[in-house]
Specification:
Length: 189
């Protein structure tokens, strides 16, 4: 089921998500729905907060071109190590439509998580995968990529962010603004 994606600046996106203690049918269903929602929106990663659920769950699929054969479902992911080397990379976010900015982050990370079968796993990532993992884990801690920008850059983005918050920038997938579900119907454009 495709879930509506919560847009900036819904309070749920500022909450710190709770750890998952049991792999319940509800959590399994949520993970599948999040993958469907992410693919529908042409995203490469999605955090549970973005569909209004404050649990520590993210899904990632950067695609076969980037060497990923199947999607990653990560429960309770934590960054346990990161490189001193940093890189600049452009980021976007399904909760911040039409906004893309260069963000500086560690080039490589090691992430600890529990997989969909309940196994403890570690993944070492660099390139795009390292970037997406850091971005999605930030969401679980109530952090937007725009929080990682310089104060000057953030100031320059203020108007764009306000437009998103007012519902003036609607993407072509179902979203939640405040407490309302808004679906932009492409045939009406
Ligand atoms: Ni995002």
């Amino acid at each position: 089921m495709i879930l509506p994606i919560y847009l900036y600046d819904h309070p749920v996106l500022r909450q710190v998500a709770e750890p998952i203690t049991d792999l319940t049918p509800e959590i399994r269903r949520l993970a599948q729905d999040m993958l469907e929602t992410m693919y529908n929106a042409h995203g490469v990663g999605l955090a549970a907060n973005q569909v209004g659920v404050t649990r520590r769950l993210i899904v990632v699929d950067i695609g076969e071109d980037e060497g990923m054969r199947e999607p990653l479902i990560l429960l309770n992911p934590t960054i346990e190590a990161f490189s001193e080397e940093t890189v600049e990379m452009e980021e976007g976010c399904l909760s911040l439509p039409e906004l893309r900015e260069i963000v500086v982050r560690p080039a490589a990370v090691q992430v600890h998580y529990v997989d969909f079968r309940g196994h403890e796993c570690h993944i070492a990532a660099d390139g795009l995968l390292a970037r997406v993992l850091q971005h999605e884990i930030d969401h679980l801690n109530g952090v937007y990529f725009t929080d990682r920008l310089s104060p000057v850059r953030r100031l320059l983005l203020r108007r764009k962010l306000e437009r998103i918050a007012r519902g003036e920038v609607l993407p072509p997938y179902p979203v939640v603004l405040g407490h309302a579900v808004v679906e932009q119907r492409s045939e009406m454009l």
